[in-house]
Amino acid sequence: MNLVDQINQAWNWLTTSAHWSGADGIPHRLLEHLGYSVLALAIAALIALPLGALIGHTGRGGFVVVSFANLARAVPTLGLLLLVVTITSIGLTPVIIPLIALAMPPILVNTFEGIRGVDADIKDAAKGMGMRGPGVLMKAEIPIAMPLILLGLRTAAIQVVATATIAAYAGIGGLGRYIVDGLSRKDYPSVVGGSVLVVLLAVAVQLLFIGIRRTFVSQGLRGSSRTS
Amino acid sequence: MTPLADGEPLVRWSWIGDHTDELTTLTLHHLKLALLPILFGLIIAIPLGIMCVRWRWLYPPTLGIANIFYGLPSLALFMLFIPYFGIGSGGQADFTIILPLTLFSLSVLVPNVVDGLRSVPDPVRQAATAMGFGTLRRLVQVELPIAVPVVIAGARVAAVASISLVSVGVLIGNGGLGQLFIDGYSRDFTTPIIVSCVLIVVLALVSDGVLVTAQRLLTPWARTRRSNG
After folding, report:
1. 3-class SS of residue A87
2. How does pLDDT run across B168-189, given as a tens digit for each residue?
3. Which of A82, A109, A201 should we substitute to test contact with B (largest number of B Cβ atoms within 10 Å)?
4. Which domains does chain B have, with CATH numbers?
5. For B2-34, what is each residue's pLDDT tens digit?
6. Of B133, B84, B78, which Cα lies nearest the Cα of B104?
7. CA B147, B149, B150: angle at the middle one, nearest 5?
8. Distance CA A127, CA A132 (A)
């Protein structure tokens, strides 16, 4: 079997109308997949964004937090999932916890680095204009750090979308179902088709973040963050 | 509802002592599966990065392809190689894991090689030329050494990711220490899962330490500069 056969099989699988309806249909599985991904990403962002901004702004505890975040990146997501499943039971919790653990480090580290890297002159200027700590953070530091903050969110989002396939192992569906079921049934087209859907979703996330970047990054900063 | 049997601790320490041989074998195999991709990745990324710096038009398409690999779920990437190298552990089947992880490492390494080479200040390049260095000698003796910190920063990210991702390979029967996840999961026994997770984190820390040391040895001038003030 070569690459052309793989593409053909995946195409046939994706275009079979029976795969597009019902509880095991692509739309339903896609929604489940998106649901877990968005929930995990939202919780991770709610924790990591303020924390990263705070330590970046105060400059305290940065080394400890970044070291810990890098250590957390090494924790295998699948192992964490199976551990939580074994301790509790199958369901939403074992899926969400590893995904949050996966999403937090890139958001935290990029937010911290972005805010810490803001030029001291700019912060002085903001203070000179009468801003206090929170004003400097909200009106100067966060907008300037926005490209890096978005890069962290994008990295986290792509990893979460790609990894949410493991939800199938906790028995709660998602696009991973096609991969996991396909593997156990030796139904290779289902495996490849499911993988293609996950890849398309990851590409969609990339495109979404290009749009977000256009909207939320100040015009004066655009294009400058990638050149360093 | 908890599937854990009454009185069963999270970690049963005696299990570790009883399985040292198995743990050693799995750890060594894990290292092979995780670090060969970094080695292959460097062997490919350095010439590819040099070409991307020399011929600028080559970089945007290369970066685009690298970004796609970065967004792929590792499991899906493993699947792609099953027809060529098969399923299982050891021998040829190891390449079902090693080659996808090599592609994944390239998505981190190539941009870092390019950024590293571009970080060489122009005056340094001009000075080397003025001293009579040809293009190749300047590249090997001046530009690549200056790029080392950025390249190693990429290798550190790639190595930690690779060590963690190998364990996903257990889903197709070849995950190094990840084998113990399924072993523990199928028996509702947490000890092997925790032990393998901890070992994977330790491996990542040790590899990271080795790379930091390599960077210090390869860039002795960075230390001198710091001690001089």
Report:
1. helix
2. 888 888 889 999 998 888 888 8
3. A82
4. 26-220 (1.10.3720.10)
5. 456 656 788 888 888 888 899 999 999 999 999
6. B78
7. 70
8. 6
Distances (CA, A) of B198 to A82, B24, B162, B204: 14, 14, 15, 10
What fold is seen in the domain A3-219? MetI-like fold (1.10.3720)
Q: Do A79 and B167 touch (CB under 8 A)?
A: yes
A163 touches chain B (CB under 8 A): yes
Chain A contact present for B193, CB below 8 A: yes
Does residue A199 belong to the interface with chain B, where contact is any CB pair within 8 Å? yes
A7 lies within 8 A of chain B by CB: no
d(CA B179, CA B172): 10
CA atoms lying within 13 Å on the CB side of residue A165: 29
Q: In whole angstroms, what is the distance from residue B29 CA to residue A131 CA?
A: 57
Residue A199, min C-alpha distance to chain B (Å): 6
For A75, the token pair is 């924790």
Amino acid found at B65 = I
Q: Judge if ipTM > 0.85.
A: no
